[in-house]
Amino acid sequence: MMDIAKQLEIIKRGAVEIISEAQLKKKLEKSIASAKPLVIKAGFDPTAPDIHLGHTVLLRKMRQFQDLGHKVVFLIGDFTGQIGDPTGRNEKRKQLSKEEVLQNAATYKKQVSKVLDLGRMEIAFNSAWFEKMSGLDILNLTGHATVSQILARADFKKRLARNEDISLLEFMYPILQGYDSVKLEADIELGGTDQIFNLLVGRDIQKDFCQEEQVVITMPLLEGTDGVQKMSKSLGNYIGIDEAPKDIFGKLMSISDTMMLKYYELLTDIDLQEVKPMHPKEAKMRLAEEIVRQYYTPEEAAKARQEFERVFSQKELPSDIQVYQAAAAENVLDILIKSGLVKSGNEGRRLLKQGAVFFNDTKVTDENFAPDKGGILKVGSRRYLKVTF
């Protein structure tokens, strides 16, 4: 194993808070002395099927721990996922069925293999212990937290102030997440800054079960392509790691210059001192190429860069533009939906209202507009469609 100073340098990169660094040093010292790796836990509720770059902030930190020789446990909350983590929510979260949760979880292994070494990782499902517990066993867990402690959560305080409902099921979530740490005997738990309450509950519950408290390491929440909101599929500001290389590249080129260094720090291993003197456009190009390379190949990354430069710098059309055979008098909204250029009528109407749709370089805002000749339909700066009759 690497010496403690070097391990700490790698572990602390990008981290917001370590509770506590003194405990972390002691755990690392013990690990080196005993030649026993630490158990690193990070939990993911499979409430959506796709993993995006926001998720990889934690995944990359997990990979760093793997490379340092520690044991990483990728915990899939197939049981807690049916409840739904209330963190950051303004309203009650819709419960998912067991079938929906398992269907989403099935896609996770393939996707995380792009970041983590599956051969050096344990995948655990928290249904393995929760489904074996009786109702009384689960109720007994509530004795490890108080109502005042749970209500101290900032998001719950806000909801109470607005007279919004909080279900008792939501009260249970941090307790169940904390018990996961007991079952896994976690030395370290990773989570986003919005997870701090849940992570600290885990420390308290471990102490109640006579275990050494886990060290909590929080990572920043990655803002999406809008540069404002946390990256989220529901907000449409996400970059999925399974998206086509040219789409990943194009989306990364759309982020603001001010967000770029944060993306470098959290999503790459590149020394920030190399990046700071670079021209913003070139730095962004390098960032996009590096991230495509991580999830595909160097060849795909180079190809995505060439395609971007050809389309956006030289104002040419994409080499793989989709062709759509339109019916006579078919309106633009129908073309957008049927061609798959948008995922729904609502998305199409929103883009039309925003002035993001062009036909032969002319802005289209009327959903009933029906082209009378062939041409190029463009949505935003990255989606093209060749319309023929």
Describe the protein in words.
By secondary structure, the protein is of the alpha/beta class. The protein folds into three domains: 4-219, Rossmann fold (3-Layer(aba) Sandwich); 245-313, no CATH class; 322-388, Structural Genomics Hypothetical 15.5 Kd Protein In mrcA-pckA Intergenic Region, Chain A (Roll). Helix content is 46%, strand content 13%. The chain contains 17 helices and eleven strands. The strands form two sheets. It has a six-stranded mixed sheet, with helices on both faces. The protein has a five-stranded mixed sheet with strand order 7-11-10-8-9, with no helix packed on it. Strand 3 (71-76), helix 4 (98-112) and strand 4 (121-125) form a beta-alpha-beta unit. Helix 9 packs across helix 10 (196-208). The longest helix has 17 residues, at 168-184. The termini are far apart. The model has no long low-confidence stretch (mean pLDDT 88).
